[in-house]
Amino acid sequence: MVSFERFVPGDGPIYQQIVLYIKREISSGIIHPDDEMPSRRVLSALLGVNPNTVQKAYKLLEDEGIIRSHSGAKSLIVLSEKMREKIRNDLLENDAKNAVATLKQIGVSKNEAFELIERFWKEED
Amino acid sequence: MVSFERFVPGDGPIYQQIVLYIKREISSGIIHPDDEMPSRRVLSALLGVNPNTVQKAYKLLEDEGIIRSHSGAKSLIVLSEKMREKIRNDLLENDAKNAVATLKQIGVSKNEAFELIERFWKEED
DNA sequence: TAAGCTGTATTAATCGAATAATACACTTAG
DNA sequence: CTAAGTGTATTATTCGATTAATACAGCTTA
Q1: Chain-centre distance for alpha carbon A50
Q2: CA of B124: how far to CAs of A110, B1, B23, B92, B110, in Å?
Q3: Cβ–Cβ of A11/B12 closer than 8 Å?
Q4: CATH of domain B14-79
Q5: What residues of A are in contact with residue B6 (Cβ under 8 Å)?
Q6: Distance (Å) from the C-alpha of residue A104 to the closest C-alpha of chain B?
Q7: Which among A96, A113, A123 has the least Cβ separation from residue B103?
Q8: Cα B84 from Cα B29, distance rounded (Å)
Q9: A100 in Cβ contact with B111 (< 8 Å)
């Protein structure tokens, strides 16, 4: 069962955050093919949002071929290794590029950036 | 005159993006005390948004003591070195912590994070 | 001085995100 | 089998962000 323990509400529409969360968990290998998604109703209760908002996220995931839904049954993760690699590369491209651009605009040098990473990389690898 | 050349539209409300942009340019020392802000109307035309949206951003900046407005005259940046340092530290805390958390969730190791920074830090220091 | 720009304010309308309340057909487990 | 849970769909409403259209008084400069 796909867990939302690591989900932290951030900026932007909730349905997009859900999609991003799933992609990141897939990228890190925590979510695997054939894993069960929580039902729309259960997840909406867990996150404290409306079922329609969750449905919107699941619809997007299905359109991208990341989950498969059968009316009446739970939705499942369907994922080839190729798709997983593509998702990971896309996320790295977006997020890393974004982080670098932001740090540079703040006026951080490359060395200072390395120090910041060190400083905030507290926990395990 | 404060320039918006480096402004790139991103996520979230536009008025918040404007506030963040100004703070980052202040942090990097590109914007100085007594610099003139573009007028609400000029900036709204430049960004292609409504004057009210810009006004909302300027109001927030004024509430934070970052700019000062006099009816009829251009708004000016007012900033002590202490405020600048605080703004910089706040931005670093938020953005660097954020970037690290995101990279970790994607399943990036610390070493891989360093490689990514190297790779995307193309331009000058 | 006079025109043009400036900050400020007000009111109405639009638009997307999110909520709310149902309904129905399908599946799965007891 | 049957009840409970599930995916899906529909309609109405709320809310914040944004647009739109003005208006007015203060500064600034030619």
Answers
A1: 19
A2: 9, 24, 22, 20, 23
A3: yes
A4: 1.10.10.10
A5: 105
A6: 8
A7: A96
A8: 9
A9: no
Instruction: Identify the pLDDT of residue B122.
Output: 82
Q: Nearest chain B Cα to A98, which residue?
A: B99
The reply to whether A53 has its C-beta less than 7 Å from any atom of strand D is: no
User: Mind listing the pLDDT tens digit for each residue in B1-46?
Assistant: 999 999 999 999 999 999 999 999 999 999 999 999 999 999 999 9
Average pLDDT over residues A46-60: 98
- Which amino acid does the sequence have at B90? D
Q: pTM (2 decimals)?
A: 0.95
pLDDT at site A123: 64
Q: What is the C-alpha to C-alpha distance for residues B99 and A103, in angstroms, rounded to an integer?
A: 9
Domain boundaries, chain B: 14-79, 82-124
- Closest protein residue to C17 (Cα–C1'): A13
Residue nearest to nucleotide D8 (CA to C1'): A71
pLDDT the model gives residue B83: 97
